[in-house]
Design goal:
The chain is built from 5 helices and 5 strands, in the order βαβαβαβαβα. It is an alpha/beta fold.
């Protein structure tokens, strides 16, 4: 792949899933940083400055929705695209949309679908930055 595809912060308390996501994204040229849960995500997000965050919902210390709420409340991370990678129940999807999540990927997922979702979010973020604007509203998957 020519050039870097973007930086992704992968947040999941399951080490195997974290590694699976990391490897699949790295194979497609993404730079990947991982965090064990939402609290660690908030600790590293400003240092890492990701283009996209993938986020599990059920995690210790701080779950996915609590993490999204704090990311959206911070002007520095308000517009970082978030993809929920979880069971994606109807409740999770509704709560995620309300929280400002841009995409959903149900576990178990196909690696190609993961890459496609992340690439779409990186491209969407790049277009917003190129225009110098910010999103007009909350995105829908």
């Amino acid at each position: 792949m020519p050039g870097a595809s973007g930086r992704v912060l992968v947040v999941d308390d399951n080490k195997v899933i974290r590694q699976l996501i990391k490897v699949n994204l790295e194979l497609e040229g993404f730079e990947v940083v991982t965090a064990n849960d939402g609290a660690e995500c908030l600790d590293v997000v400003h240092r890492v400055r990701p283009d996209v965050i993938t986020l599990d919902v059920v995690m210790p210390r701080l779950d996915g929705f609590g993490t999204v709420a704090q990311l959206r409340a911070d002007p520095r991370t308000r517009h970082v695209p978030v993809a929920i990678v979880s069971a994606c129940t109807q409740h999770e999807v509704e709560a995620g949309i309300e929280a400002g999540v841009e995409a959903f990927l149900a576990k178990p997922f196909e690696p190609a679908e993961l890459v496609q979702v992340v690439r779409r979010l990186v491209e969407r973020k790049d277009r917003r930055e190129w225009k110098g604007g910010t999103p007009a509203g909350r995105g829908r998957g």
